[in-house]
Specification:
2 domains; elongated; TetR/AcrR family transcriptional regulator
């Protein structure tokens, strides 16, 4: 193996280690945690951090893009569920669990949107989620006035339980069960009291874009 190949391999290894440690550090201390501490935790010098991520914004953008990639990795399981209702369950459960385990995510979304307002990958999922919702409605399992935006809001609500720390996570499925029960279609449902936001408006609100 050439020295150049070895150097590239070491660089990739350091890059991945820095991303892994950054996520752990942000979970504990938020996205403004000192990058010197990141270097210490990753076992590299401060110069290595800045070679891979010249600015904090560059690091935040890559962490954000990896979060979007993780969402895409969940899509086949959610979209391939045997029933529309199972797709709804998986969407709410998997994403709520992910958001709860990533308490820095809301601030990360806002910071990336401030730096690059045109970067809006979340909008790519609107059509797929609408398809899940319509499938569940067609089979009569989801109440007819629920929208994809409602599901996103509920995911954020459930995910916010992560702010209580890991001690609460064994109990969050109680709230998940309550939420899913409220989404089920039933005879004589009272209609929801207001129309839903559009997906684009919700996306911009969540990213603090107006």
């Amino acid at each position: 193996m050439s020295s150049a190949t070895s150097t590239r391999r070491d660089a990739r290894r350091n890059h991945e280690r820095l991303l892994t440690e950054a996520k752990a550090l942000f979970t504990e201390r938020g996205i403004d945690a000192p990058l010197d501490e990141l270097a210490t935790r990753a076992g590299v010098g401060a110069g290595t951090v800045y070679r891979h991520f010249p600015t904090r914004d560059a690091l935040l953008r890559e962490v954000y893009d990896q979060a979007i990639d993780m969402f895409q990795e969940l899509a086949p399981e959610i979209l391939g569920a045997p029933t529309g209702w199972r797709s709804i369950e998986l969407f709410v459960e998997r994403l709520s669990e992910w958001v709860a385990a990533t308490p820095y995510l809301p601030e990360l979304m806002r910071r990336v949107a401030e730096g690059d307002p045109g970067h809006r990958p979340g909008l790519e999922f609107e059509a797929a989620l609408d398809g899940v919702v319509e499938r569940a409605k067609a089979e009569g399992s989801l109440r007819p006035d629920v929208t994809g935006v409602d599901l996103n809001v509920l995911v954020n609500m459930l995910g916010s339980l992560g702010r209580f720390g890991g001690d609460y996570l064994p109990f969050w499925r109680r709230q998940l069960a309550i939420v899913l029960d409220g989404l089920r279609a039933r005879p004589d449902l009272e209609p929801l009291p207001a129309p839903s936001q559009s997906f684009a408006d919700f996306h911009d609100m969540a990213h603090h874009q107006r």
